[in-house]
Amino acid sequence: MASRSVGAFGSILASVILLLIGVLAFSIRLFSVIKYESVIHEFDPYFNFRVTQYLSKHGIYDFWNWFDDRTWYPLGRVIGGTVYPGLTLTAGFMWWLVNSLNIPLSVETVCVFTAPVFSANASWATFLLTREVKGTGAGLAAAALIAMVPSYMSRSVAGSYDNEAVAIFALIFTFYLYIKTLNTGSLFYAILNALAYFYMVCSWGGYTFIINLIPMHVLLCIATGRYSANLYIAYAPLVILGTLLAALVPVVGFNAVMTSEHFASFLVLVIIHVVALAYHVKRLLTPRMYKVAVTLVIMVGMVGAITLGAILVTLVAASPTKGWSGRSLSLLDPTYASKYIPIIASVSEHQPPTWPSYFMDINVLAFLVPAGIIACFLPLSDSSSFVVLYLVTAAYFSGVMVRLMLVLAPAACILSGIALSEVFTTFTRSLKYHAPLPPPQGSQDMIKDKEFLQTQLSTLNSTINDKAKETPGDKGGKEELKERSSKRSRKKEKEREVSQKATDVDKKKRLLGLPFEASALGIVLLVILGSFYVVHCVWAAAEAYSAPSIVLTSHTGDGGLHVFDDFREAYAWLRHNTEEDDKVASWWDYGYQTTAMANRTVIVDNNTWNNTHIATVGTAMSSPEKQAWEIFQSLDVKYVFVVFGGLVGYPSDDINKFLWMVRIGGGVFPHIKEPDYLRDGTYRIDAQATPTMLNCLMYKLSYYRFADSSMDGKGYDRVRRTEIGKKNFKLTHFEEVFTTHHWMVRIYKLKSPRNLIRGKTKRKGKLAAKAPKSVSSKKQPRKNPF
Amino acid sequence: MASTAGEVRALLSSLRSAYAATPTKLKIIDLYVAYAICTALIQVIYMAIVGSFPFNAFLSGFLSSVGTAVLAVCLRMQVNPKNKEFKELPLERAFADFVLANLVLHLVIMNFLG
């Protein structure tokens, strides 16, 4: 009775704790909303937001068939076929649900708060997963850890409306259902697993991690002799149904069966069928017959396998990347991207992480994970081997790309939760056995017996020694004494044995327990460790990961807050002061924000699917003014803007990104040569810079009138920390139309085509002279509608 | 060679006798699996002859037969009285799971068929 009520109390406590963990996960991500405002962060979320707006306005059929002509001018982009729809469909569904209940939340509010809601779901999914591996205590610890872990928080704060917000939840949930199927062998959970995998495929390109990790785990189980019917039921329906569902998503399409990322799953499917058949036949036949069958199959099968393997190898070797996509290949071979695909190499998230970033991102868990790995091995089950494999592969991939620390975070939390739970169990058990309860029955007698025996033995010894020299006659008496005492001791021994068996188990448990002070101190130290973790996580949430990066702040001398809202200022200017279908050119980083906030057509954006187009823009930025003007004129561009941080010290401006423009442009157009821009191997903009650098468009657009407008006329660039090289120059083909408050965004307009036939006009007479003048006079009133 | 031929014959006869001892329920399921695999093979041969133009049609047909074969194998494993791990699973539940799984599979197939 007592245990049942304790069990009920325990489950209620667990539910309350889970609810609180969900609230914690939601609220710790709200720092950016409190410190700044409810705004969408970064670059990619703006695209997702624009897509969600379109979905909410036009409905789902128009969304699937949407062809976006406002980006990648003149190519356009097929949104329905190139976007992972999971996030937008989820947010769109939540918006529709909330609005049909007459709660008037705008699309932007729903988008901003999607990520915190799904991080609460992710902690609950982690609880379920860890409970399947090690039990409720470990589950609660793991859920509490992942609610706060900085690595996951960095991609899921309120306002970070990106794929990973829902994808991590889908990842953990899929793994939970896989482990549940493995543990129970129920086909129902296998179907749920396939549907959760479908949701993951819809959400993120990282689904290939799942479809390669699960086959690896199945292979591991088979190789270590742990094949069972549960393994087959967990794996085979997932592959068939999962491949079909993955092919349903338009982004993946037939890649689900044709690219090398999925081949591992098919290979392991064949292997598991062979193993299943072998086990089945082994059960049917006698051992001798089985050996015959094995030799026969090997002889016949070898021939078939070799031919099949040859066909497969030739098919795969025919494609230059061996069937893998560029991004996956850069994961397997970390140097691939820097050699062949500079765009992938240029993204800062794709660089390998530094050692401090591990301690920043998973903090205390870095110490607890090895303990968790050991705890998983005692005892080893299918589910715990899966979690260890997940951690090992995630640790490797996180070492390749800092962005993938996100995939390591759930694994680290699960294993740390297991470790914490095991350690707490040991400590509290030791405490329980040292508690001041009445000692068990035989112990006191046991102690008394021991003393009695000892005195007996000592007296015996002394009597034997004393009377050793005595006559044999006395020996009988001594022997009798010895016998009697030995009989008594033997009886006492038997009693002792019986009571000892009862207390033996207890004694063993006591021996397993640590001394009282050690376990109490251990618990206190662990709680302190946990508090360090919590303090670090809250600090990371408040200071490091809540910046929306579209609004910047700094502290003034007297402690006030100075806000740099230049980006939104520039986009608002573009929105209100240009024509509806004017084309705007900039570096690809700002494409999504421009289409979402300024609502103008852009040339390149963050999708980076067309390297040549980006190289065109990069070449234009690296060329002298006339050539750049010609390139932009051929693309129908009207406005060009650059981001310049020299006046305020903003380090992520276009001059710092200039080396990538040169490299990407030079990769496609050979007349852009990187050494032309380098002096002693570095990019410089001071007086020592090369003439090519001082004449290129990026330099001119960034530093036009910079020297005149600074107070000492010297033009000191705060980011590069030098004076600029060329100070007072005029622009011939561009004119400045807007510069924001802190000079962070500078917008220029292309000058209309110059009258190039100056000399010949005089000969041709007044007719030709009249025509251009009328054209230019017509253009005058249209320039500035406000 | 003769010894191996004799051994092969002995092997086949022992296989046949061992298989004859399996319950009828399982033999029906095995028949269903064999039928589904044959259908899949026929579809592959047809594609090899005619070409794979509506590739999604081929993929959905092929994966539907292979999928239902795999699900039937799972059902057979759950229903087999010799499997100790499924002793407490009632047969009706196993069959209901099988039907539900097939329903989901064919819903997806019909969506993908185009």
From TrEMBL, chain A:
Gene3D superfamilies in UniProt: 3.40.50.12610
Location within or outside the cell: Endoplasmic reticulum membrane
Organism for this UniProt entry: Adiantum capillus-veneris
Domain STT3/PglB/AglB core: 581-640
Top-level enzyme category: transferase
Pathway it works in: Protein modification; protein glycosylation
PANTHER family named in the record: DOLICHYL-DIPHOSPHOOLIGOSACCHARIDE--PROTEIN GLYCOSYLTRANSFERASE SUBUNIT, DOLICHYL-DIPHOSPHOOLIGOSACCHARIDE--PROTEIN GLYCOSYLTRANSFERASE SUBUNIT STT3A
InterPro entries: Oligo_trans_STT3, STT3-PglB_core, STT3_N
Required co-factors: Mg(2+); Mn(2+)
Composition bias type Low complexity, residue spans: 768-778
Region Disordered, residue ranges: 464-502, 759-786
UniProt KW keywords: Endoplasmic reticulum, Glycoprotein, Glycosyltransferase, Magnesium, Manganese, Membrane, Metal-binding, Transferase, Transmembrane, Transmembrane helix
Designated name of the protein: dolichyl-diphosphooligosaccharide--protein glycotransferase
From TrEMBL, chain B:
Keyword ATP-binding assigned: no
Sorted UniProt keywords: Apoptosis, Endoplasmic reticulum, Membrane, Transmembrane, Transmembrane helix
Any one of the GO CC terms: oligosaccharyltransferase complex
Membrane topology: Multi-pass membrane protein
Keyword Endoplasmic reticulum assigned: yes
InterPro entries recorded: DAD/Ost2
Name by which UniProt lists this protein: Dolichyl-diphosphooligosaccharide--protein glycosyltransferase subunit DAD1
Organism in which the protein naturally occurs: Adiantum capillus-veneris
Lineage per the UniProt record: Eukaryota, Viridiplantae, Streptophyta, Embryophyta, Tracheophyta
